[in-house]
Design brief:
about 50% strand, six-stranded mixed sheet, 10 strands, about 110 residues, about 0% helix, mainly beta
Amino acid sequence: EVQLVESGGGMVQPGGSLRLSCAASGFAFSNYDMSWVRQALGKGPEWVSFINIRGTTTWYADSVKGRFTVSRDNAKNTLYLQMNNLKPDDSALYYCSDNTHRGHGTQVIVSS
């Protein structure tokens, strides 16, 4: 059974940082490109970041470029998202996806 379990969310002040993790199991994680997606309350899903299977290619939404960094550790079957200089507009449920499956997500709230 494919499982994607996100963690690391929380409440942080504007300008703060968080590191999200996504633990994968039940499939060959190292063979799949991965993405982070977020969904703010009352809005549709917004793609945030992409990383290829070897971690050599990364893409970011314009809204997070220069502030977020995606990475992966294939030996640990884990995907990461380092989020710096967080803004209130970054508040959302963040989840990881292999473009077929997704996790339940981890909530990020950026507020003073």
